[in-house]
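user: Kindly work through both lines:
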Amino acid sequence: MGLVYSEPACQSAYDGDVHALYHLLRDDSDQLNVQDRHNGDTPLIAACRHGNLKVIRYLLDNGADVHLTNEKQRTCLHYVSKRGFTLLEYLLIAILMPILLLGYFLMLQKQRKSVSLMKMMLSSNVNIDAVDYKGNTALHHVCQKKSHRLVPLLLERNADTNVQNNDGETPLDIATRLKFKKIIYMLKKTH
């Protein structure tokens, strides 16, 4: 069960239906950056929420606005940064781990997809230091998720490590509080 959008372009993007999205945009180009009535998501934000690589690439290639925010003041980059394992994925990994390491391969595949999503978003002119309604940047989110593969990608694009969120925490403060040693090391190396 996923999100249900009032805007067909947002729903098609969330569902990963490039064909339907193509027809919607062909008939009305304003649908490219349409915002959902309920939460303000755009098709690009919807695609990023669900991690639809093909749809994201299609929308970026057609000039989707990466700077638009939803009602939580989050951009598409925030949602790429917030993506993690779902409960179902954790259960599958735990169940399949002893069986020929299938769980391990599932985990690696998910991590590779996250890296691909992040690289795709960073190839655009997205504002890497945009803050949401809680004052969090993409770097805050990847530190909270212990995404040690995504932190270097943001740091390579010169993400500001000194931005404080509404709780007064920088990404380094979050990594320190959560005791993520590898991330702490990466963040300290940039100072």
